[in-house]
Amino acid sequence: MNDPRQKALETLAFFDQNGYIPFRKVEIAISTLSSIGRRFYMNLVMETLRKRIQIDYILNQFLKKPEKLPAPVMNALRLGVTQLFYMDSVPEFAAIHSSVELLKAKSFKKLVNAVLRKISKLETPLPEQPIWLKYSHPKWLVDYWEEIEWINPLEELLSYNQQPPLQVYSIPKGEYHLLDEKGYIYDKSDFSDCIIVLEKGEPISSLKRIDELEYIVNEYFRCPVIKPENSSLALLSEKPWLFHTISKEELLKSANELKKELSNRIANIEEFVYLSNTLTLEENTQLLAPLKEFVPVPLDDFMIRYNLRGTWDGYGYWLLPPNSPRPGYIARMRRK
């Protein structure tokens, strides 16, 4: 079975049951697809997850009791809306027909066909919308971020979260010529000697996919870098299933666990860099403020060297694109 749409439906079913999508699951799903099929599958799954809040809002205008529909039917409808509104390369007929063909029951085929045909006639699916719906984010999260003075402008962050993450790679300086020889389309990063791959060519063994923010932090600092497990709200574009699984309660739980973890990890060190993959007060500013035996150390030289700009909160910097490779938080703390 080499239909990327059917594999996308199966992946969404896995998410509904488990609340996440492991990259191993994706690798298995795309292993039998062509390179074009793989790209289509990845785009379809990730866009459906990124836009799901907006998609469900649209669907609810045409469904009487969406909560009563079987999960495969609802996901087939979501995949159809994604192709209609968020994938310009898919013709309207193909978006509708392919979604109908994902289902076996004749009654549900008719339902999906009728609903998607009505939706396809909408000139503007969301004419007037609050900011959380415009950018397909949970309302509670947008309300929460609006209260954080260091996340500004907020709309830039929300827009960034709805875009596929850049594919950043490192390569030894003496091998840049291989990129042209192997047919890569790429651009240079604004923040390091890494490259942004726009289209891959033939394999290059020394080309390594990286987290650029982590890469430059590890390149610059010699003291321990603490990158803890947290709510990962800075990685929404990379892990869009988090839009639908993270709650305020989970956030607070993560913060409490992080306090214990950090206390243990800094017990016997004189200085550390805190690199956070989330954008919450509880897991950043309010986590570092009680560390009375440590003082924050300015990061001016680091920020200048890597062309970074962020907002200082008294302990560290809140980092937001386009002034950083990705969202995050960084602080340097030294024992008194």
UniProtKB/TrEMBL annotation:
Highest taxon of source: Bacteria
Protein name, entry field: NusB/RsmB/TIM44
Entry's Gene Ontology BP terms: regulation of DNA-templated transcription
Organism per entry: Kosmotoga olearia (strain ATCC BAA-1733 / DSM 21960 / TBF 19.5.1)
GO molecular function: RNA binding
Keywords recorded for this protein, A-Z: RNA-binding
Occurrences of domain NusB/RsmB/TIM44 (ranges): 28-121
One Pfam family recorded for the sequence: NusB
